[in-house]
Amino acid sequence: MIKHQEKYPGRMIEISEKIAQEKTVIMPDNGPIRLLFISDLHMFDPDSSREYINQVLEELSKPNTYAVLLGDIIQGFNPTRASMAAGTPRLDEQMLTAEAILKPFADQGKIIAAVGGTDSHEGWADKNMTFDATYFMFRNLKGVDGQDLPIMNNGGYVTLQFPNGGKHRIRVYHDAGGGGSAKNMVGSERSRAMEITVDDPLCPDQVVGGHTHSRAMITTELAINAATGEVISQTFATGGTAQGIDPNRPNVFLTARGVAPSLPGLPATILTPHPGDGTTRRDVWGLENSGKLLEAVRLWEAIESRNLGTEIESMIRENIPTTQAEFLPDSSRPVVRTSADQDIQNQVYDVARWHVRSAVPLLTVFLGGTRYGSSSTDESAARKVVAEAANNPEAFLIITRRMVDKGLSSDPDRDAHLSDMVDLIEPAGRNGKILALLMDDKGLRDPGWKKPIGDYESGDGSSPVVTGDYIQSRLPVPLIYNGSFVVLDVGGVAYRYYIRDKLGNNGSSINPFAGLEVQVARTRTGVDVAAGGHMPRVGVSQTASRVVVAPGGYARWSEMSKGNEEPLPEGGQAVIIYPGEKRMIACATFVEARDTHRAVFYATGLQFLPQKTQTKLLKMARQNIS
Questions:
Q1: Tell me, what DSSP letter sits at residue 473?
Q2: How far is CA 155 from the centre of its chain?
Q3: How big, in percent rounded to 5, are the helix, strand and coil portions of the chain?
Q4: Which of 31, 169, 498, 539 could form a disulfide with 221 if both were Cys (CB 3.0 to 4.6 A apart)?
C-alpha cells in the first residue's frame, strides 16, 4: 500500500502495520482466569448453530473469562463457492453486525487478541479484493488493556503479562498447517510447537488453532529438556465449530466431500499466575466444564490462602455420606483359563465392574512404570500417589504396566522385588482403593515366573511364583489383562475405562495418544477413558466424548532398548469423574490432579453446607481475585 506523502490529501493507513507477529498484553488482575479459544463460529452462515454461538457468548460474559478469537468468526463471501454464499448476508453487513455483537465484550476488556492474515473466510476478501475484513471488523474494538485490540498474524505470539510478574505465552493460529488429521487432531499444532526447541525463548506454553471443523481437542503434553532435566508442559488445542453441528443443518460443502462430521466444543484453560514468570495451568474441554472448573479453582484458592482447608473439609464430610466402593465379581467378566493354567488360583477379568456411592467427584489416578528390579525406580514419588489413594476417601488407583521391570522373572532376586512392589501399593489395597491391577505380558505375567531360578532350596534363588496368586494373597485387588475394561457405576452413571499394556506397534514417539486411539477404534465400543502404552511422551487429551491418558512412570528411564534410554516424565496422571452426570476432567500431573480434585470437592461439597456458610465462602472466592 502507498504510504502517506505530503502531495496526497488526507491520511493513508498502512494496514500491514496493524497486524502483529508479537504482542504482550497487560492483564488486569492476577487470576485465576479462564481463557476461551474461540474459532469457526461462522456467524451469519445458515448452517451455523445459533444456540451454540449464543452459548459461547454467554460464557464469555461471565466473570474472569477472556477470549482469543482464532478466525472464521464470520462466514465471509467467496463468489467462486456458490454453496457457501447461498443465504449469506453481504460482507459489509456481516462485518458491521459482528463488530456490534463483539463490541460490548471488548468494552468490558474480555477479548485478548484476534487472528488475522488468514487464507480462509475473512481472508477471502483480502485474497479476492485486497480488502482486509479482519482489520475493518475489529479496528474500533479495544483489547484487555484498553489499547487497540491486537490483530495477530497466523502463527503470531501473544504473551500475557500479569501484575504479579506471571507470564503466559501463546502461539495463535487459525490454520496451523500440515501435520494433523481426523485421527491426529492436534497434530498441526504439535508440529508447529516441535519446530521450536524447548530452550528457545520463543517456545510457547500453548499452541492453539482452528479451521479444521472435524477436529476438536485439547491436550496437555509433557516432555523433558534433555539439557536441564526440567519437565516442560505444553498445551495443543484445536477448536470446534458452530457450522454444521446441527444434524438437521449439516455443512453441505463438507458433507459433499465426505469429510468427517463437524465437531462442536471449545478448548479452554484455567490460568493462575504466580509472582515471577510462573503460571499454573489447567487445560479443560468444553464450556460448562471450564466454567465449573474456574468456579472451583477460585473457591479453592480462597480457602487454601486462608488456611481453612481442614475446617471446610470437616464441615463438608459431616454433611455428606461416606464414599463407598464395591467390586462386583458376579457382574464382572472373568477370563477363561486354559488347561495349562489350572494351577493358578486367582481370577483375572477382562471386564471389572465397580459400584461407587459418592456425593462428590472421584479422583482416579494411574500408577505404573515403577519398574521394580531396574536401577532407576523412584519409590518415594510413587508413595505419594499411593498415600493420596489411601487417605483421600474419593481417590482410587488403577495400576498399569511395568510395576516390575521387563525380564525380572529371570532375576534371582525377583521375590524381593515382587514383595517391594506389593509393599508399595498395600496401603491403598488394604482400603479397597485399587480398582484394577494390570498383569502385563513381559512383567507380572511373564511365563518365566513359573520356572525355578538358581538353588532356591538353599535360599540362593527363587522357587516358581504365580504372581497373581501372590498379589491376591496379600491384597484383594481385581486383576486384569491387556485391553480390559474397568467400569465404574458412580451415582447411576457408568464410566468405561479401557486399559492397555501393548499398543500393537501403533505407538508414536511424537504423538503420545496415537497408539491408544487406534486400539480404541478397534474395539468398536464406547470408551470414556483410555489409558496405557509405554511411549516416552506423556500427557492427557480431552474431547467432547473421551479422555485419553498416556501415563508417565516412576523410573528414571522409559522402557526402551539398552543404549536408547530416554528420560520419562513422572506418572500420576488422573481423571476426575462426577457422580450423577457424565463429566470428566483430565489432569496431566499428580500435583495438578490432587489440587484440582481438592477444588472440585470444595465446589460440589459446598451445596451440602448451610446457606449462610455457602454465601460467605462464595463471597471470599469473589474477593480473592478482584
A1: H
A2: 22
A3: 30, 25, 45
A4: 539
pTM here is 0.94
Phi, psi of 264 (to 5 degrees): -85, -175
Angle at 206 between CA 560 and CA 505, to 5 degrees: 25
158, 112 Cβ separation under 8 angstroms: yes
Segment 173-202, tens digit of pLDDT: 999 998 888 788 999 999 999 999 998 988
The half-sphere exposure of 175 on its side-chain side, counting CA atoms within 13 A, is 13
Name the residue with cell 521391570.
405
C-alpha neighbours within 13 Å on the C-beta side of residue 492: 3
CATH code: domain 15-285 is 3.60.21
Cα–Cα distance, 401 to 286 (Å, whole number):
31
Listed in order, strand segments (DSSP E) in 301-423 are 324-327, 333-334, 348-357, 362-367, 395-399
Burial status of residue 14 (CB atoms within 10 A of its CB: 0-12, 13-18, 19 or more): exposed
Retrieve residue 59's grid coordinates. Answer: 460464557
* Phi, psi dihedral angles at 290 (to 5 degrees): -70, -35
Burial string for 210-229 (b: 16+ CB within 10 Å, else e) reads bbbbbbbbbbbbbbbeeeee
pLDDT tens-digit series, residues 440-449: 999 999 999 9
The answer to whether the peptide bond before residue 447 is cis (omega within 30 degrees of 0) is no
Q: Which residue has 516442560 as its cell numbers?
A: 232
Q: Which residues are CB-neighbours of 331 under 8 A, at least 6 positions away? A: 353
Task: Report the alpha-carbon distance of residue 175 to residue 91 in Å, rounded.
Answer: 22
Q: Where are the domains of the chain?
A: 15-285, 289-319+595-626, 338-495+552-588
Task: Please enumerate in sequence order all residues whose Cβ is within 8 A of that of 590, keeping only pairs 6 or more positions apart, or say none.
Answer: 365, 384, 385, 388, 570, 571, 572, 573, 574
